[in-house]
Amino acid sequence: MAMKRVAASAFNALTTSANSPVLTRCLHASPGPKKIVGVFYKAKEYAALNPNFVGCLEGALGIREWLESKGHQYIVTDDKEGPNCELEKHIPDLHVLITTPFHPAYVTADRIKRAKNLQLLLTAGIGSDHVDLKAAAAAGLTVAEVTGSNVVSVAEDELMRILILVRNFVPGYQQVIHGDWNVAAIAYRAYDLEGKTVGTVGAGRIGKLLLQRLKPFNCHLLYHDRIKMDPELESQIGAKYEEDLDKMLPKCDIVVINMPLTEKTKGLFNKELIAKMKKGVLIVNNARGAIMDTQAVVDGCSSGHIAGYSGDVWNPQPCPKDHPWRYMPNHAMTPHISGTTIDGQLRYAAGVKDMLDRYFKGEDFPPQHYIVKEGELAPQYR
Ligand SMILES: NC(=O)c1ccc[n+]([C@@H]2O[C@H](COP(=O)([O-])OP(=O)(O)OC[C@H]3O[C@@H](n4cnc5c(N)ncnc54)[C@H](O)[C@@H]3O)[C@@H](O)[C@H]2O)c1
């Protein structure tokens, strides 16, 4: 703790200017109008199709009028990469940066160093791995997300992906599009979900909701996590705790990843770990692309060791045209969509508004929303 504080003040001494003292960053709400920048995906012709489509650049979380009526400046952009992008123009003087995992503004140590007025980084959604959290902590920034906002959206999507892979749905759909009819090409590896062993790696909010949704399918349910559930919840959900991931993986027909991207989980699913899984395993990953070793997934899908891989998260995002996961066999990938349903958007927009309101008033956020507070990372990110 003491060491961290020393490191934080050393970093601040190096990175703050005379007119932007350390305290400016640490104080939760300094008075006066703020410059707030939002980075969101552009919806173009789709923006006007639904008044509740608030998660896009055009919708701007539905908070423009409110912010401007309070005298704050609110700039939104989707242009977030490279030295000449729109976001870069605002780095030197923004106070608050809001971004979303669906179109993340990567907040590097270098950006933090140059953002002398920055106090607050808000994630419209869940997962703040697009921020260099250690640099944010050292600079005295607050990082917060809307914990719980889209967990139902993601759990439902995972259930769909499991079924899509188990039933070998995608090749059947493609046959129809391409004017083909070949039942055998689908049926030789389409199964029922009933009786299969499903393991979730991470059983926090999303993992638990998925397990609850899987229960009526009469599967064998396993989970691995840092923390064991309390026995009552565990028996209600009907899942068995596996303390050792290496021992759980060989038992699973289907593995679902539901842990955050942290220093410990980055690249966790490498060649060696994938080799421990059953031949023919199906993997669903809506957590973060970088939890997987990209090439190990490609190799696993190409050899057939992984019989199907589905998810909506990539590294980086948006993923380039030549990203190998676009072209590997047996995948059912989509752009990052699972947590940005209209219902999810309304919830995380309301959560962002609530946190901004508290920030202006100098009030604390709900404790579960903090990822970085007063130089400390939330426990699972340490
Ligand atoms: N695709 C999407 O649209 C979308 C939307 C929301 C969240 N997510 C991702 O899903 C992740 C999980 O979300 P959540 O709401 O369930 O979070 P959560 O914090 O409720 O649960 C995460 C679980 O992972 C466990 N965990 C963390 N590190 C671990 C480790 N090293 N080993 C074992 N277990 C570990 C934690 O103990 C916790 O139970 C988020 O961090 C985010 O990256 C994706």
UniProtKB/TrEMBL annotation:
Subunit structure and binding partners: Homodimer.
First-level EC class: oxidoreductase
D-isomer specific 2-hydroxyacid dehydrogenase catalytic domain sequence ranges: 67-349
Sorted UniProt keywords: Mitochondrion, NAD, Oxidoreductase
Any one Gene Ontology BP term: formate catabolic process
Family: Belongs to the D-isomer specific 2-hydroxyacid dehydrogenase family. FDH subfamily.
Annotated site location: Important for catalytic activity: 288, 336
MF terms in GO: formate dehydrogenase (NAD+) activity; NAD binding; oxidoreductase activity, acting on the CH-OH group of donors, NAD or NADP as acceptor
Function in brief: Catalyzes the NAD(+)-dependent oxidation of formate to carbon dioxide. Involved in the cell stress response.
Residues that, per the record, bind NAD(+): 205-206, 225, 260-264, 286, 312, 336-339
Transmembrane segment boundaries: none
Main location: mitochondrion
Catalytic activity field: formate + NAD(+) = CO2 + NADH
EC number assigned by the record: 1.17.1.9
NCBIfam families: PRK07574.1 (NF005750)
Name recorded for this polypeptide: Formate dehydrogenase, mitochondrial
GO cellular component: chloroplast; mitochondrion
Location in or out of the cell: Mitochondrion
Binding, substrate: 126, 150
Matching InterPro entries: D-isomer_2_OHA_DH_cat_dom (IPR006139), D-isomer_DH_CS (IPR029753), D-isomer_DH_CS1 (IPR029752), D-isomer_DH_NAD-bd (IPR006140), FDH_NAD-dep (IPR033689), NAD(P)-bd_dom_sf (IPR036291)
